[in-house]
Design brief:
By secondary structure, the protein is α/β, with parallel strands linked by helices. It is built from 14 helices and 18 strands. A five-stranded parallel beta sheet has the order 2-1-3-4-5, with helices on both faces. The chain has a five-stranded mixed beta barrel with strand order 14-15-16-18-17. A three-stranded parallel beta sheet has the order 6-9-10. The longest helix is centred in the last third of the chain and has 24 residues. The N terminus is likely disordered.
C-alpha cells in the first residue's frame, strides 16, 4: 500500500466533465481530508485513485472509460491501490458498468458521494479513519488553494426532462440547497482568498422554488452580493424562464454581480423545441434578449445550441444560422446532437446522419465565431476590471473581466498584478476570443 510522506494514506482525483463535477470532487476531497487522508495531485503517488466521471453524452462516457482504463494501468493501481469510479457513469449504467469494468474496486454514483470516506476506508481495508489512529501525524491546515475563482453548487438534479438529456436519470429530481449551506460554502472560499464565486446548477433559475417557504435566485444572489461586498458573483446555466426581471434588477444594481448570463436556448425553431420537450421560439427569444439588454446595459450573453436534432429540416437549420448571424449573443457554444440511449429523442423519427450533424455543427460554429469575435473586437477602447488569475509559462499574466466566464470565454492579458488582484484596464486589442488590457 502506498502512503504519503506524512504517514497518512492518500487519495488522488481524476475529474472529467463539467464544473459541477469539479465541485463534487472538491467536496469529496474535503470529506477525505477531514477524515485524515492526504489528497495528492499525482495519481501515481496515491494510496487510492478516484476517477469522477461524466456520461452526459456518449463521447463523454467514452472519455470517462478511457480515463478509468488509463488509471487502471498506473503502477500503484496495478500493485494494489484501489481504483474507485464515481459520478455520472455509475449513476447512469449501474450494475452493467460493474460487469464491464472489473478493473475498478468500487463504484460510487452521484447520489452516494457523501459515502466517499466509508468507500475509501473499505477499499483500503482500514478499520477507521486515519484521523482516529493514535500517533498519526496531525493534519496540516495547508495554504489557500491560490485560485482566484471557485464554483459553488446551489442545487442538484433536474425536473425538465428535455427529450435529449440524461441528467434527470443520472442526478435525480431537482432539489435546491439551503441558502445557509450555499452561504457557508461561499464563506469558506472567500476565507481562502477566492475573489469570484460562480454559482452553478443544472438549472440555476429554479433555485428556491422547491422550498416549503419558496425563495428565488434573485434573493439569494442579492443577499450574497451584500454580504461579500469584495467578491464577484457570477451565475451560469439559467434557463430562459428563469431570467426574471427581479434577477436582472439584481445584476443591474450590484456592481459585484457580473452582468453576465448563460442562457441555454438549444434551438430557435418552435417545432424542434417542442420535440426537445422545451418551450420558446425565435420571436420569443429575440424578445427575451431585447428585455435583458434593456434592463442590464452592457450585459454579456452566452448560449448553447444543438445542431442536427431529429427532424431538423434544412429550413429549420437555416433559420438557426440566421438567428445566430444577427449577433444576439456574445458567446455561443455549439454541439452536434448526440443520440443517447434511453432518451425519448433517441426514438424520434427523422434521425440525421452523423456526418450531416457534424457538418451542420461546423457551419453553425463558423457563423458563431465570425459574429462573436466581431462583438469582442468592439470592446477595444472600453474600460474594464480584470481579475488576475495566473501567468503563462513565459510569465505573461492573464485574468478575466466580468464579460468572461471561467474556462469558456477566453482570457484578458495584462502587464502587472498578482493572482487575486482586481485591475482597472483599458482593452487595447483582441485576438479571436482573447483580449489585451493596459
Amino acid at each position: 500500500m502506498t502512503y504519503a510522506n506524512t504517514g497518512r494514506p492518500s487519495v488522488a482525483f481524476v475529474t472529467l466533465g463539467c464544473a459541477k463535477n469539479e465541485v463534487d470532487s472538491a467536496n469529496m476531497a474535503a470529506s477525505l481530508t477531514q477524515a485524515g487522508f492526504d489528497v495528492v495531485k499525482d495519481p501515481e503517488d496515491a494510496s487510492a485513485v478516484i476517477v469522477n466521471t461524466c456520461s452526459f453524452i456518449q463521447s463523454a462516457a467514452e472519455e470517462s472509460i478511457e480515463a478509468i482504463l488509463d488509471a487502471a494501468g498506473l503502477k500503484n493501481v496495478e500493485s494494489g491501490a484501489p481504483l474507485i469510479v464515481s459520478g455520472c457513469l455509475p449513476a447512469r449504467y449501474g450494475a452493467e458498468l460493474e460487469d464491464e469494468l472489473p478493473e475498478a474496486t468500487a463504484f460510487l454514483p452521484c447520489s452516494k458521494e457523501d459515502d466517499i470516506v466509508a468507500v475509501v476506508l473499505h477499499a483500503l481495508g482500514l478499520a477507521c479513519s486515519p484521523a482516529d489512529v493514535p500517533g498519526m501525524p496531525p493534519l496540516d491546515a495547508g495554504e489557500a488553494a491560490g485560485c482566484a475563482s471557485a464554483y459553488v453548487k446551489i442545487s442538484d438534479g433536474c425536473d425538465r426532462f428535455c427529450s435529449f438529456c440524461t441528467i434527470p436519470f443520472i442526478r435525480g429530481r431537482y432539489h435546491s440547497f439551503p441558502a445557509a449551506d450555499v452561504e457557508a460554502a461561499v464563506a469558506r472560499h472567500v476565507a481562502a482568498g477566492v475573489r469570484e464565486i460562480v454559482l452553478i446548477a443544472q438549472d440555476t433559475g429554479r433555485w428556491g422554488q422547491d422550498f416549503a417557504d419558496p425563495s428565488t435566485l434573485a434573493a439569494l444572489l442579492s443577499h450574497l452580493a451584500e454580504t461579500f461586498l469584495d467578491t464577484w458573483f457570477r451565475v451560469m446555466y439559467t434557463e430562459p424562464v428563469g431570467v426574471t426581471d427581479e434577477l436582472l434588477d439584481v445584476m443591474a444594481t450590484h456592481e459585484n454581480v457580473c452582468s453576465y448570463l448563460d442562457i441555454p436556448l438549444q434551438h430557435v425553431d418552435a417545432g424542434i423545441l417542442q420535440a426537445m420537450n422545451r418551450s420558446g421560439s425565435r420571436a420569443e427569444f429575440e424578445t427575451l434578449v431585447a428585455r435583458v439588454r434593456d434592463r442590464v446595459p452592457g450585459v454579456t450573453l452566452r448560449t448553447t445550441l444543438i445542431a442536427g436534432f431529429p427532424g431538423e429540416t434544412e429550413e429549420a437549420f437555416e433559420d438557426l444560422l440566421d438567428f445566430v448571424s444577427e449577433g444576439h449573443f456574445d458567446y455561443v457554444g455549439v454541439f452536434p446532437y448526440s443520440r443517447e440511449e434511453g432518451t425519448r429523442a433517441a426514438r424520434l423519427p427523422g434521425q440525421i446522419d452523423e456526418d450531416e450533424k457534424i457538418d451542420r455543427a461546423s457551419r453553425l460554429r463558423d457563423v458563431a465565431d465570425a459574429v462573436c469575435t466581431a462583438r469582442i473586437a468592439e470592446r477595444v477602447g472600453q474600460k474594464a476590471v480584470v481579475l488576475v488569475e495566473g501567468a503563462e509559462d513565459d510569465g505573461q499574466l492573464f485574468g478575466r473581466t466580468q464579460a468572461q466566464a471561467p474556462e469558456v470565454d477566453g482570457a484578458t492579458y495584462v502587464g502587472a498584478g498578482t493572482v487575486g488582484d482586481f485591475l482597472s484596464v483599458t482593452i487595447v486589442d483582441t485576438l479571436f476570443y482573447e483580449m489585451e488590457g493596459e
